[in-house]
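Worked example

This section walks through a single chain of length 186. The input is the sequence exactly as stored; nothing has been trimmed or padded.
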Amino acid sequence: MIDMDDILTNFNLAFLQIAHRMYEEVPVSVEVKVWDFWKSVPNLTLEMEERVWEAIRSTPNFYESLPAYADRDDLLRLAEIMRAGRHEIYFITSRFPTKGRTVQAQSQRWILEHVGEPGAIIVSSRKGELCQVLGVELAVDDAPHHIENLLDHGINTYIMDWAYNRHIDHRLRVKNLGEFLDCIMD
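Given that input, the structure is written out below as tokens.
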């Protein structure tokens, strides 16, 4: 199981760019150290963050426009793994709806455009339960609450290393998609 945001896509950057367009005093080049943006982004208040979320919800097909976080070579490797068909790969994301196409359709279009292969997209915040049902053996995620849920359900989980999840004491960490792909290819 591969989560999408901040593993494949660069959601944090997209959020900060929108915040900066809306509020010039909000910087774009910031390390997000706490899960709530307003707690770690200078000059961003909770009220401002809520307005940014509203702008995202109002943006047609927002998820299709996200920049890649994974580098091109790692996305090409992922495409090769998917084409080979030796691994069932699920992309489970807990994105909220925006204007335009469904979250699933937007996510599928992103995968097709950036990876070049159609992907099995599931939109859900119940990742641990889903991975159990699907027989997922390995997962990678960045969100603290999803990591905890996956671990609570016995899923062998790799943590995409971000400052906002370093409080979780877990030995399986990766710095990028390529490192996770190395793990599934063993």
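What to look for: The mean pLDDT is 95.
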